[in-house]
Structures are given as C-alpha cells and as structure tokens.
C-alpha cells in the first residue's frame, strides 16, 4: 500500500497505478502461488480525456511557419493523411501513390497494412521536396541517410507552433486527431474515418464525436 500511495503522491496516471497493481498481483499470485490477494483493493478509475484538436486555420498557419519544404511535407502528411509519427517515419518513396492519390501505410499498429488519402497540395510539395532532397529509401531521411528521427519530427512541430503563436500544445498525434475531427465535421462517415485511421473498432473512432463542432451547432445556448 505504501508503494501505491507513493505513486499517487508522485501524480502518476491512473493507468500507471493500475498497471503497477496488476504487476504486484501477478508476482504474488502467479510467481509465488499466493492466490486471492488484493481483490478488495480499490483501483483508481480509468481516465477519460478528450483528444487535443486544433483548427484548420491553425494547421495552415503551422505549415506556413515551417523552416523548409521537408518540414512542410512532414506536417502536411501527418495531418492530411492522419498518420501516426511512426507510420510517417516508416514511409518509403514507393508508398506515395500519386495516380490513385493514396498513401500506403505498411505494418501499422496491429501489424496491418492500410491506405489513407493523399492531399493534392501535399503531393505538389512532395514533388518539390523530392527534387531538392533526393531521398534514397525512406521518404524522409536524416542528413546521413537512413530513417528520420522521431524527436526531430516533434521539434519541427513544436517550433512551427511557437512561430505560429498557437497556444494549444501541438504534437504529431494532435495533427492526427485534428484530421479525424475535421473529416467528421465535414460530414465524412465515421466508418470511413475508422478505416483511414486504422482503428479496429468504431468505439475508438467515436471519441471524435465529442470534440467535433457540428455535434454542438444544432444546440441553442440558453444564454442566447
């Protein structure tokens, strides 16, 4: 109990505390063979947090405040195709299908391939980027070749957000959340968004209904 109280005092998340309880239970009950322990221990409730989303205008401002065409393409693909950071870094040159206007994501979460949409504006920038940087294997590579750094992607977005004076904390996943939310606000079916994001269940995708503005537009504020 003292250990768990220490975790709580250090402001560890509820999921972290629950994982710690599970680890302790496994040690006592499976490793030591001492069943029926900690069943009366009250667990913290699972946290429910809404995804952080920025507006389309802020996305455009973010892209406008990038340092170069490479950084611009990185942000455009993260948002315009709803990619996870790891998916962006794993992209190969041949994964950009300009004829069908699709991006192929290989072995994504759950070891499944999927397709997502490709922005026409992003494609034009990608062509300029390719001529200038000439990547050999991965679409985005480091200065000495090889896969681009995940931390570099975070830094690109952070610097652009600072220059654009966006107060919301913007991360690669914020762009993915914004992609899904903006599609939902534009009337795209939830099932289609699920496919684009690579979610196994619509329940995961349904969280965006809680932040989409069209959910609230039909509700008249009582103050008005």
Task: Describe the fold and architecture.
With 224 residues, the protein is mainly alpha-helical. It folds into two domains: 1-48, no CATH class; 56-215, Intergrase catalytic core (hpI Integrase, Chain A), CATH 1.10.443.10. It contains ten helices and three strands, in the order H-H-H-H-H-E-E-E-H-H-H-H-H. It has helices at 2-9, 14-31, 56-64, 69-80, 85-89, 120-133, 150-163, 172-185, 190-197, 202-205; strands at 96-97, 102-108, 112-117. Strands 1-2-3 form a three-stranded antiparallel sheet. A hairpin with a 4-residue loop joins strand 1 (96-97) and strand 2. It is globular and about 65 Å long. The model has no long low-confidence stretch (mean pLDDT 88).
Outline the fold blueprint.
Layout: H1 2-9, H2 14-31, H3 56-64, H4 69-80, H5 85-89, E1 96-97, E2 102-108, E3 112-117, H6 120-133, H7 150-163, H8 172-185, H9 190-197, H10 202-205
Antiparallel strand pairs: 1-2, 2-3
Helix pairs in contact: 3-4, 3-7, 4-6, 4-8
Largest sheet: 3 strands, antiparallel
End-to-end Cα distance, whole Å, is 51 Å
N-to-C order of helices and strands: HHHHHEEEHHHHH
The fourth-level CATH homologous superfamily of the largest domain is: Intergrase catalytic core
Strand order of the largest sheet: 1-2-3
- CATH topology assignment of the largest domain: hpI Integrase, Chain A
> How many domains in all?
2
Content of β-strand: 5-15%
Class by alpha and beta content:
mainly alpha
Shape: globular
The top-level CATH class of the largest domain is Mainly Alpha
| Unreliable runs | none
Number of helices: 10
Rg: 21 Å
Whole-number average pLDDT? 88
Task: Please provide the count of β strands.
Answer: 3
- As a percent range, the share of helical residues equals 40-55%
Just name the CATH architecture of the largest domain: Orthogonal Bundle
């Amino acid at each position: 109990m003292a250990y768990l109280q220490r975790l709580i005092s250090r402001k560890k998340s509820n999921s972290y505390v629950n994982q710690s309880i599970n680890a302790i239970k496994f040690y006592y009950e499976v490793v030591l063979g001492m069943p029926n322990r900690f069943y009366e221990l009250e667990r913290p409730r699972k946290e429910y947090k809404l995804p952080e989303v920025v507006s389309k205008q802020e996305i455009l401002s973010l892209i406008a405040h990038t340092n170069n065409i490479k950084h611009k393409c990185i942000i455009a693909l993260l948002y315009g195709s709803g990619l996870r950071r790891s998916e962006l870094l794993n992209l190969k040159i041949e994964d950009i299908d300009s004829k069908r206007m699709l991006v192929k994501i290989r072995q994504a979460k759950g070891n499944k391939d999927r397709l997502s949409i490709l922005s026409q504006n992003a494609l034009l920038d990608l062509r300029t980027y390719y001529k200038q940087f000439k990547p050999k294997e991965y679409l985005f590579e480091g200065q000495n070749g090889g896969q681009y750094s995940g931390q570099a992607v975070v830094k690109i977005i952070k610097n652009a957000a600072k220059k654009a004076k966006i107060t919301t904390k913007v991360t690669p996943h914020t762009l993915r959340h914004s992609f899904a939310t903006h599609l939902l606000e534009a009337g795209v079916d939830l099932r289609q968004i699920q496919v684009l994001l690579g979610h196994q269940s619509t329940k995961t995708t349904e969280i965006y209904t809680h932040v989409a503005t069209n959910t609230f537009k039909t509700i008249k504020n009582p103050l008005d």
